Amino acid sequence: MNLNTLLIIDDEPQLRQLLARLLSVEGFDVVESDSVKNGLKQLEKHPFNVVLLDVKLPDGNGVELTKTIKEKYPETEIIVQTAYGNIADGVSAIKNGAFDYLVKGDDNNKIIPLINKAIEKSNLQFKIKELQEQLNQTLSFDAIIGKSAAIQQTITLAKKVASTDSTILLEGETGVGKELFAQALHYTSPRKDKPFVAVNCSAFPKDLLESELFGHRKGSFTGASNDKKGLFEEANKGTLFLDEIGEMNFDLQAKLLRVLETQSFIKIGDSIPTKVDVRIIAATNRTLTKEVEQEHFRADLYYRLASFKILIPSLRDRKEDIEILATHFMLVYSAKLKKRITSIDAAFLKQLKNYSWKGNIRELKNMIERAVILCETETLTCDLLPVEITHCEDAVTTTNSLASMEKNHIQKILQHTKGNKTKTAEILGIGLTTLYRKMEEYGIEK
Q1: Which of 102, 136, 170 is the last residue of a domain?
Q2: What totals of helices (H) and strands (E) does the chain contain, helices first?
Q3: How many CA atoms lie within 13 A of 248 on its CB side?
């Protein structure tokens, strides 16, 4: 969004009109106003890069108006025009947020360069605002796709707690979108301009996870060659998302509980507590109450984390969302792969709705990506589905057996990933070992 717009607020008509003509000749889009009231009305109607503002107005003071405008329209820059010998007004206006000030009748040579600088700064701020709005839309609850009652009720519940500092526990099966909810909770909270830091607790052994979370001092253990900030410090003033919290070592859970209760911790190899201000959002695909009963998870930590629980529904419990999700992923991957795929066959959708989706949305996303890769028409059809999903009769013919069809799928995806076995296995939804076994079975070159 690049503007070139100016608003002149001045109650001297001859001076205002002369200045407006001068600036219009220079290529600026100029709007005139003769009072505070009319000036604020113009600002409500249109975005402006720059306001040229007189100090003495019939219904107000330009110095005070500067503060009002900057509070309501922070992307708009203000240049205050002061009377000769009253530079103090300009200085006061700058304290209230003005870009600069001009002395009337004394700075005519400075006005155009100054306005250009102010417009450049304003356009940058409008651009940042636009990008922030796009980011907020991508990371907010708007990014959670679905119209079913199950998902809408979950979103409504999450929105109610988003603006608080309450600790939140997200429960749900693998692939339901727990991290998407965690991001939305953060980016619609007062902490949205501060860090959002995510860590998967199942990805680290105990000792390494402790160092990742809390940091360490140089020399505290073999290999600790430097001081290291932990993720709690990285997330200070923001949100720390602890995914797969049920995998955390029992001993480490005690240290986490202390942080939740005191907002402080001691780094490995340190003796002085470090204070932090961090909101915790945890997630698990386990039933933590059972883990507590089996003494695999601390009861006191569970009750501290579960002060506000949100259960995210599985895809099986919101099957009416499958079509909208599948269409969304089809459009995303069609654009990414530069293919013209515009529709999904009714039989294809029927198979999707009949499937159990143990991997939930993540599984659906990978399956649609796979289908888009294989598709050579404008419509996704049943023959593009993997054999564990499809039951279409035409999928097996005398010339195209299930085995040859699977071989063809694997070869196409290997070609798409340029031979990357790990990515190929991920798209196919199988393990890497299974992929190698099938490649050997079908005589596909490794």
Answers
A1: 136
A2: 18, 18
A3: 29
- Same domain assignment for residues 250 and 325: no
Rounded-to-integer distance, Cα 87 and Cα 69, Å: 21
Quick one: which of 4, 10, 79 has its CA closest to 39? 10
State whether 26 and 118 are in the same domain: yes
How far is it, in rounded angstroms, from Cα 230 to Cα 234?
6
The segments of the chain whose pLDDT lies below 70 read: 1-2, 84-85, 105-108, 132-138, 390-403, 446
User: Is 125 in the same domain as 198?
Assistant: no
What's the pLDDT at 91?
83
Euclidean distance between CA atoms 245 and 305, whole angstroms:
10
Same structural domain, 226 and 369: no
Distance (Å, whole) CA 285 – CA 244: 7
Concatenating the DSSP letter of every residue in 14-39 gives HHHHHHHHHHHHTT-EEEEESSHHHH
Domain count along the chain: 3
Chain-centre distance of CA 181, in angstroms? Answer: 10
pLDDT score for 397: 40
Q: Which residue has the tokens 């253990």?
A: 221
- Domain containing 110 equals 5-136
Could you please report the per-residue DSSP string of 369-389?
Answer: HHHHHH--SSEE-GGGS-TTT
Question: Please, where are the H alpha helices in 163-316?
Answer: 178-187, 206-214, 231-234, 250-262, 288-293, 299-305
Backbone dihedral angles phi then psi of residue 173, each to the nearest 5 degrees: -65, 165
Residues 6+ apart with CB under 8 A from 88: none
- What's the CATH number where 57 sits? 3.40.50.2300
| 394 and 376 housed in the same domain | yes
Could you tell me the two tokens for 430? Answer: 């199988």
